[in-house]
Design a protein that fits this description.
The complex is a heterodimer of chains A (about 625) and B (about 500). Chain A is mostly helical and about 625 residues long. Chain A has helices at about 10-25, 30-55, 85-105, 115-135, 135-155, 160-195, 200-205, 210-230, 240, 245-255, 260-275, 275-300, 305-325, 330-360, 375-390, 395-410, 415-440, 455-470, 475-480, 490-515, 525-535, 540-585, 595-615; strands spanning about 65-70, 75-80. A two-stranded antiparallel ribbon of chain A has the order 1-2. In chain A, β1 (about 65-70) and β2 (about 75-80) form a beta hairpin. In chain A, α1 (about 10-25) runs antiparallel to α4. The termini of chain A are far apart. The two termini of chain B are about 30 Å apart. Helices cover about 80% and strands about 5% of the residues of chain B. In chain B, α10 runs parallel beside α12. The chains are: A mainly alpha (about 625), B mainly alpha (about 500). At the A-B interface, α5, α6 and α22 of A face α6, α11, α16, α17 and α19 of B.
Chain lengths: ~625, ~500
């Protein structure tokens, strides 16, 4: 086995963090060295992540908390929590991270500023693993912000592009809204319990030492952080714009790992708050509504990566909704879907990157017929799409099936209907994407430059596709890994529902984009035109936010700066000075400068002084 | 414990003695020589102060005392070294050393270089004196001693309208100092002593109303220095128009003397009267945070933005101190350090940008990340630290401030303070975007990175923004006991 693997819970995130700091130094040796150094570091980290699995299996689902002293003055401890959930997420982050760093070697080969790129990618991987391994809220928050900072820096990687630097800033500020809610929640909880530790907080809450109203607001505030990071309604607007970054970044940060941090946080705090009914309802509706709204937007998007971004939003909504069901089956289904989605969405993004690498555009209306030119990318994309739309036996089918089953079992029919509708739209946009990109005729200008991508890019695709094909069958070991005994099996009603969803979603997409027997133009005019407009504007969330925060807010602060700070507060000071000046001006005429007047003044003063002395002497 | 090594006295005296040397021989040794002289003087002071570290960590309170006759009046020159003074005096001496190095490059294009360094040395001597003085009269003397040279520094080497700005700065601070003097004399009439070590017990029997008024008078003096809303308007003018190394010292260090004095005098000697107004002061702190932040948004001048940001951050420091809980006070004191480091870094970077481009209007800058990469990294670290983003130092202190407020039971105010951080991150990201991202304007194609006299201090400060975030327990070793001593006054009563 690996050396020092008893320290794996620390090494797994410290190695990438230290590696990232070394990147600028290694870059001095040579560019090739730097790139492969990053690959090696990320694979070592992945190896440590895997080495933790047997460790955690031997604990049978029990959490193992390993703390060291951090800020002894206030009794704060840093630590890692080794339990099935944290190790699972660490593996997702480290494994997919390693594959994507490998892929970057080919994909980013023609870009400048790669030292910065590899620094932030490794820093991100370290931060993300640190986030999931943290055993207390404060440490989690620190890593939470670190990954946010890396996301900001990597979205704006091409900083000369105005849209990219704007998108980075938007992502940072919108998620910061959620982060602030999270921080308020964390500190409020700390003020109640006196500890940031997950397990200690859990004991404290279970003992019923916090008033229910306080606990409820804390739970909602902490979930606010998840809304921001996992881009749920109403803070979903940053994720589609985040696609301005390099595709590898979109795949790693904005599909497979960082956006799952919100789901992770909700899953982690589930044991703390699952007794609060209002919290569960809130969580499930936010998730389900996000799932439906964003799936409908994905139908009209024409950017190859934005379709996938909306799809990510929708799938994250499903995971959150599954957690909100409130049963352990729902919890498990959500985590299972986290795994499926991390694999197939990273795969789809990397396929999209491969396509963009060849086609040189992101507009899917200018693609088409690419399956002839890029066979490997096509096959792997097909696998990804089959997973995403939930076709058996690919992994997406199994996890989505579990979510439906969990909702059915708990009789949450409103949530169920939202999930089913969202899944129907998912099938439709998935096959639309596939059809527009790979089928029909090529609609771009010239097809000479179309080619399959190099091996460093296709190998990660193949590996991910292979995992996507088989991981669906791992349901039972996965359940065992999390320490659940009961296995649901394949039940009839959810299976039927899944098939109905597939048929309803697939048929229109097939007719429009494969057979071309129905023209999509019809949907852009008339009464459908209004709907199309609403969808392509993303339900006007962005418009409203821009109107308030980008257009009106500057007017507001400029007005109060001009009118209050300068013209009232500061003017007041000058007014005081002016009054003083006026008063002294009034005395000026007495200072005539004429010698005789001065002398008589002195004499008058002298006489007055004498009189005073005489009076005092009495 | 009385100590006769005299290192405290020397740490103040050395810059003051170096100051006439800089004036008399300034022309002969030139700009670099003057800069080195100042740097060495400050570095020696820093080392002397640093030599107290172990004894202070052991919990010793060290004092030095000298009797000086001024005419018929015997002034008791006594100095005190404990956790609180060590923290702040090290910050002052350390940042001054870096600012002196930075000045070498900055003064390249300026006139009257030897007088500049003369004033700089006096200014820093005054600041260290304020922090070490353990006698109200001595405290007041040093308080004025740091005002006068800094007035000349602003009025003579400032940009824009330096004479009016300098005058405004002088009048504001002096009006505050007048209130302070009034308070000092009043407290003497009640206590019969100026000595810090005796004052606390001497004031206990004083009537409550009088104590409360003394506290308020002194607080006004400190609040003007710290630029609390609504007496903040001198700060954006002075800090933006002062020469950059002086902006560094004003924003990074000098306004912190106001915060130090609040911890040392207001909180320590008047605990019962502070407790009655602490809620109002917390609200004032929130207003200051929000106001400074909103005003920072409206700025187009890069240094003015940083100046308003200092107003906003002064609100955080006040907020932490006024929570009256050890954790919050520790956060406030720690934020003095972190903000001092990060804001000095940002002003130095802004100065580097102005030095290289000659432009201070952010709308005319852009794309400098590729031209000045080290400055870009420095600004990013400094800005994120001030905005309270982990893993930088600013987060370590800000969460303690917030947690202090929550522990004290001020949930809503604490939440508002946390929400105010989004304003901070907003204007800093806007600044970073305007200055460093986008296309490079045509007239800036030839821009180069700043000279190394500027980059070295910036790199050192960048290092500390990161280190104090990750290894927060190192500075907290000194800071937390200081806060704990103050916090104990309140938990008891």
């Amino acid at each position: 086995m690996l050396p020092f693997d008893e320290y794996a819970p620390w090494l797994v995130w410290l190695i990438p963090l230290v590696g990232s700091v070394l990147i600028p130094i290694v870059a001095k040796i040579g560019d090739k060295v730097r790139n492969w150094f990053a690959v090696v570091v990320s694979f070592i980290s992945a190896a440590y992540a895997i080495s933790m699995i047997p460790q955690v299996m031997s604990h049978h689902g029990e959490a193992f908390d390993w703390t060291i002293s951090w800020i002894p003055q206030i009794g704060l401890k840093a630590g890692v929590l080794v339990d099935p959930l944290s190790v699972f997420m660490a593996n997702v982050a480290a494994g997919i991270g390693a594959l994507i760093v490998l892929y970057s070697i080919g994909y980013m080969a023609h870009d400048g500023g790669l030292t910065r790129y590899y620094f932030f990618i490794l820093f991100f991987i370290g931060g993300m693993i640190g986030l999931v391994m943290a055993d207390n809220f404060l440490q989690l928050f620190i890593f939470w912000e670190i990954v946010g900072m890396c996301s900001y820096a990597l979205i704006g990687f091409w900083y000369r592009k105005k849209s990219a630097s704007n998108a980075g800033m938007k992502a940072f500020i919108v998620t910061k809204v959620g982060d602030i809610l999270l921080l308020i929640g964390i500190i409020a909880l700390f003020a109640q319990t006196g500890s940031f530790n997950f397990l200690a907080s859990k004991e404290f809450i279970e003992a019923g030492k916090i008033a229910i109203l306080g606990l409820m607001s804390i739970s909602m505030l902490i979930f606010g952080g998840a809304i921001g990071k996992s881009a749920q309604v109403p803070l979903q607007v940053w994720l589609p714009d985040a696609m301005e970054g390099p595709t590898t970044v979109s795949a790693l940060i904005h599909a497979a790992t960082m956006v799952k941090a919100g789901v992770y946080l909700t899953a982690r705090t589930f044991t703390l708050f699952s007794t609060i009914n209002e919290w569960l309802i809130f969580v499930s509706y936010i998730g389900a509504i996000t799932a439906l709204l964003t799936a409908t937007i994905a139908i009209v998007s024409t950017d190859i990566k934005r379709v996938l971004a909306y799809s990510t939003l929708s799938q994250l909504g499903l995971m959150i909704a599954a957690l909100g069901i409130g049963t352990s089956l729902g919890w498990f289904a959500s985590q299972f879907h986290v795994m499926s989605h991390a694999v197939f969405k990273a795969l789809l993004f990397l396929c999209a990157g491969s396509v963009m690498h060849a086609a040189g555009t992101t507009d899917i209306t200018k693609m088409g017929g690419l399956r002839k030119y890029m066979p490997i990318t096509f096959i792997t994309s097909l696998v990804g799409i089959l997973c995403l739309s939930g076709v058996p036996p690919f992994n997406g089918f199994w996890s989505k099936d579990l979510i439906i089953l969990a909702a059915l079992e708990h009789h949450m029919y409103a949530i169920l209907i939202l999930i089913i509708l969202a899944s129907i739209f998912t099938v439709a946009y998935s096959f639309r994407w596939l059809g527009l990109v790979f089928f029909g005729k090529y609609r771009g200008r010239e097809s000479k430059h179309l080619h399959e991508s190099p091996l460093v890019m296709t190998i990660p695709l193949i590996i991910l596709a292979a995992i996507a094909c088989v991981s669906g069958f791992l349901e039972e070991p996965f359940m065992h890994y999390f320490g659940f005994e009961h296995l649901a099996g394949l039940e009839l009603i959810p299976l039927l529902l899944s098939i109905v969803i597939l048929i309803i979603g697939f048929v229109p997409a097939y007719l429009i984009y494969f057979r071309k027997s129905v023209s999509p133009e019809g949907f852009r005019s008339g009464s459908m035109g209004t709907l199309h407009k609403i969808l392509s504007e993303g339900y006007y969330f962005d418009r409203v936010y821009y109107a308030i925060f980008v257009n009106s807010f500057p007017k507001f602060y400029n007005q109060i700066y001009d009118w209050i700070d300068l013209k009232i507060i500061d003017k007041f000071n000058y007014a005081v000075a002016d009054v003083a000046k006026q008063i002294s001006q009034n005395f000026r005429p007495s200072h005539t400068g004429v010698l005789s007047a001065n002398i008589s003044g002195i004499l008058a003063g002298f006489v007055g002084f004498l009189i005073l002395i005489l009076i005092m002497l009495g | 414990m009385i100590d006769n090594y005299g290192l405290m006295l020397y740490s103040i005296i050395i810059p003051i003695i170096a100051s006439p040397i800089a004036y008399l021989f300034g022309k002969r040794i030139g700009r670099v020589g003057n800069g080195i002289l100042s740097t060495v003087a400050f570095a020696i002071s820093t080392l002397m102060l640093f030599s107290y570290l172990n004894r202070v960590l052991d919990g010793e309170i060290i004092s030095e005392s000298y009797g000086v006759w001024i005419g018929l009046f015997k002034l008791d020159m006594s100095f005190l070294m404990d956790h609180l003074s060590l923290t702040i005096s090290l910050l002052i001496a350390g940042i001054s050393t870096l600012a002196a190095i930075y000045s070498i490059s900055y003064m390249e294009h300026e006139h009257d270089q030897e007088i500049y360094f003369t004033c700089l040395l006096l200014f820093v001597g005054g600041m260290i004196g304020v922090v070490l003085a353990s006698n109200l009269i001595l405290f007041y003397l040093f308080w004025e001693m740091m005002l006068i040279p800094s007035y000349f520094l602003i009025a003579h080497w400032g940009k824009g309208r330096p004479k009016i700005t300098g005058f405004k700065y002088f009048m504001f601070t002096h009006a505050g100092a007048a209130c302070l003097l009034f308070g000092i004399l009043w407290s003497y009439s009640l206590a019969g002593t100026f000595d810090f070590l005796k004052l606390s017990t001497a004031l206990q029997s004083a009537p409550f109303d009088a104590l409360r008024w003394i506290m308020i008078l002194m607080f006004i003096g400190f609040a003007v220095k710290l630029a609390i809303f609504p007496v903040h308007t001198w700060l954006p003018d002075a800090h933006a128009e002062a020469p950059t190394p002086i902006s560094v010292l004003l924003s990074g260090v000098m306004i912190k003397c106001g915060a130090y004095a609040m911890a040392r005098i207001t909180l320590t000697f008047f605990p019962s009267s502070v407790a009655t107004v602490s809620y109002a002061l917390l609200v004032l702190a929130i207003i200051t945070m929000l106001w400074g932040g909103l005003m920072a948004f409206a700025q187009t001048d890069i240094k003015r933005l940083l100046a308003y940001s200092s107003v906003s951050q002064a609100g955080y420091i006040l907020f932490g101190l006024m929570s009256l809980y050890s954790l919050g006070i520790a956060g406030g004191l720690f934020h003095i350090i972190n903000h001092g480091i990060a804001k000095s870094l940002l002003f130095m970077s802004a100065g580097a940008i102005i030095y290289s481009t000659g432009i201070r209007d952010m709308r005319k800058l852009g794309g400098l990340a590729s031209k000045m990469p080290i400055t870009a990294v420095a600004v990013l670290c400094g800005a994120l630290s001030i905005a309270g983003t982990p893993p930088f130092g600013g987060f370590a202190s800000e969460w303690m401030i917030f947690a202090g407020a929550f522990e004290a039971g001020f949930m809503i105010l604490g939440a508002l303070a946390i929400i105010a951080t989004i304003i901070t991150i907003g204007y800093y990201l806007k600044m970073i975007k305007n200055v460093f991202f986008g296309e490079v304007p045509k007239n800036l194609k030839e821009v180069k990175e700043a000279p190394s006299y500027m980059l070295v201090p910036m790199s050192i400060l960048t290092f500390f923004t990161v280190i104090f975030g990750i290894f927060a327990y190192v500075p907290l070793n000194i800071i937390y006991p200081a806060a704990d001593i103050i916090g104990k006054f309140f938990l008891g009563g």
